[in-house]
Amino acid sequence: MVVGQGSDTGSEPEAGTNPFGAEPSDDRRATERLCAVCRVERSISDLIRFVAGPDDVVVPDLNRKLPGRGVWVTADKASVAAAVKSQAFAKRLKRQVTVPEDLPDRIEAMLLKRLEQALAMANKAGVMVFGFAQVEAELDKCQISVLVHGSDGAEGGREKLDRKLAAIARARGDTAAIVNILTIDQISLAMGRSNVVHAGLRKGGATDRVWSEAERIKRYQAGFGASA
After folding, report:
1. Residue 88 near residue 175, CB atoms below 8 Å
2. Percent helix, strand and coil across the chain, each rounded to 5?
3. Per the structure, how many domains does the chain have?
4. Whole-angstrom Cα distance, residue 161 to residue 86?
5. Domain endpoint, select from 47, 69, 101
């Protein structure tokens, strides 16, 4: 693959392998691409890949697996909006394509849905507790790694739980992992429960995915370099 020229097939090579079966691939070339808007090379984790579908409509490839030549854009809403406005997709793909005007909003909705799905998976994995009292009890036992609050919930209870997690995180030399992106209704729907205002997640792979998706949507909304 040639970094920055968009000549990829959608699937990333495995670590230590070369997609052409020759010399081992350079790690940097395998994990960095050129943003079509700002023309800066970034890690693929800081970019969104786009491809043109069979109908020549540009679609986001959030999992970086769709076939076809990719166009990479810095993973924030402002950069995607700039790509739409500047016709960067047609320029990089070197042909006429259809780009939905609401593409930045569509991606935001997709990222929010991914966060909801990650919460649902964490719930099925049994790493979640719900309700203020239950979450506080688990915090007192230092069992909570990530806090999730409804963005439209009361600030008083949220702040008390946040302070406890922050103290635990400081003792570990970490920063508190707090997610307050989704509304109470969105969290409740994802959990299949009613009126979920506060939730706590214990350590585990499902929890890591929730935090990863939360960071991704926060960066997308707030701008490159932000964190959840």
Report:
1. no
2. 45, 15, 40
3. 2
4. 45
5. 101
The CB-side HSE value for 164 (13 A sphere, CA atoms) comes to 20
Examine the fold and report which residue of 73, 101, 129 is the final residue of a domain before the chain moves on. 101
Residue 71 lies in a domain: yes
Express each pLDDT in 183-211 by its tens digit: 999 999 999 999 999 999 999 999 999 99
Its pTM stands at 0.82
Question: Residue type for 181, please?
Answer: I
The set of residues, in sequence order, having a beta carbon less than 8 Å from that of 176 and lying 6+ positions away, is 147, 162, 165, 166, 168, 169
Which residues of the chain form beta strands (DSSP E)?
Answer: 32-34, 41-43, 47-52, 58-61, 71-74, 128-130, 146-149, 177-179, 198-201
N-to-C CA span, the chain: 32
Structural contact between residues 215 and 111, judged by C-beta atoms closer than 8 angstroms: no
Rounded Cα distance between 210 and 36, Å, is 28
| Mean residue pLDDT across the chain | 87
